[in-house]
Amino acid sequence: MKTTQPPLTRRRFLRVVTTSAAVAATRRWPGLAAASEKPRAHKTILSFYCDDTSPYTAGAKAFQTFLDFCAEHHIAGESSVILGMGGHAMTRNSTDEERAFLQQVQRAWDCGIDSHMELMTHHGLFDFDANHETKDAVHEGLWIHEPDVTAEQYEHYFSNIIAEAGRAGIRLTGLTWPGCGCEKCKQRYAALRAAGPKEPNPEFWKALLSLAKQGKFRSRTVPCFFDASETKGDIHEKAADGPCAVFDLMPNANDRFGTWTNSPDKVNADYYLSADGKSGILARHIEAGAPYALWYSHWQGLNPAKGVGWRAFVMVIERIQTHLRDRVVWMRPSDITNRYHAAGGWSFLDAMG
Ligand SMILES: [Zn+2]
Ligand SMILES: [Zn+2]
Q: What spacing in Å lies between the alpha carbon of 118 and ligand 2's midpoint?
């Protein structure tokens, strides 16, 4: 610790903190506050992703409770749809529970919630003719990274998933990468990483753009979720043509709502926002002038029936409403990418100040 500097008075401390936050914001988000040192008063977008949502974890009623809560509190985000997770397409020969769940997914959009495909099975590639997973098939998340797959193959597979969703009256909004820690995937990812950074096959983005241009997604822009980073979370345009575009919209906050293991030691409301509203990653992003604060979560931990993170989620939303109400605007991921693409950057936020 240096002792030669003059003592920091509270006022000087605040000046140092404010100035460095403004400079950092200008550097990180050049579209914002570029003209002056002072950060412009713009609202910060809030949103979230919820992975692995299905009727098998906590039943359809839990998803209904979640959607009701989102609608009542006027929040917005995303929740995955994995139509073949139960071993068959839940849009065909469905059980009562699956049907009840699909009815809820149909109303997700009206409750402020996007529906991303987390591919068809979150496991091996699906055989749509046989209505089951292909035996010993490559896992979907890895397949997105395999360099030899063509744009046509991706497009064909994704259009099958979109057609299944259509059978249930569901319009998909984007795509979430289904992560997998199985031995086969781990080894293959390691081999791919040895050859270069772990990136999806570029043909994958082309296929999504082609589907967006055909109007197969709900919006003309398609948000995707791959990796997250508290410090390097950012939006990346991956493919675009006129009004249509595909984005990697990275979360910049992690899962402290129990994760996929539904573990109590992974629940922490203060991580997002402290009870006094002064600290936590949401407060930090807002202070730094970030255009958005977006966290990811998992249905196993978040669901209101069995999830250990549900109470913390409710608490965080209440804290946001108490302390940040005037500084944030909720948007589902597809609204974020639609507006970002239409404006050619974050300038639209200035009009929301
Ligand atoms: Zn997942
Ligand atoms: Zn795997």
A: 14
Kindly identify the ligand whose nearest atom is closest to the C-alpha of 183. 2
In degrees, rounded to 5, the angle at the alpha carbon of residue 273 between the alpha carbons of residues 267 and 274 is 90
Residues 6+ apart with CB under 8 A from 306: 57, 58, 62, 262
d(CA 123, CA 261): 17
Which ligand number lies closest to the CA of residue 186? 2
All structural domains of the chain with their residue ranges: 40-352
Please give the average pLDDT of every successive group of 10 residues along the chain, which has 353 residues. 40 42 51 50 94 97 98 98 96 95 98 98 98 96 98 98 98 98 97 94 98 98 98 97 98 98 98 98 96 98 98 98 97 98 95 77
Cβ distance 291 to 43 under 8 Å?
Answer: no
| Cα atoms in the Cβ-side hemisphere of radius 13 Å centred on 253 | 27
Tell me the whole-structure pTM to 2 decimals: 0.89
What is d(CA 65, CA 107) in angstroms, rounded to the nearest whole number? 12
Q: Which of 250, 252, 313 is nearest to 282 (CA)?
A: 252
- Ligand number, closest to the Cα atom of 181: 2
CA 52 to chain centroid, in Å, comes to 12
Task: Give the whole-angstrom CA distance, residue 203 versus residue 149.
Answer: 7
Check if the beta carbon of residue 142 is closer than 8 Å to that of residue 178. Answer: no
**Distance between CA 166 and CA 208 in Å, rounded?**
17
40-352 carries CATH number 3.20.20.370: yes
CA of 72 to the centre of ligand 1 (A): 26
Tell me, in angstroms, the distance from the centre of ligand 2 to residue 186's CA.
Answer: 7
Residues 118-129, buried b or exposed e (16+ Cβ, 10 A)? bbbbbbbbbebe
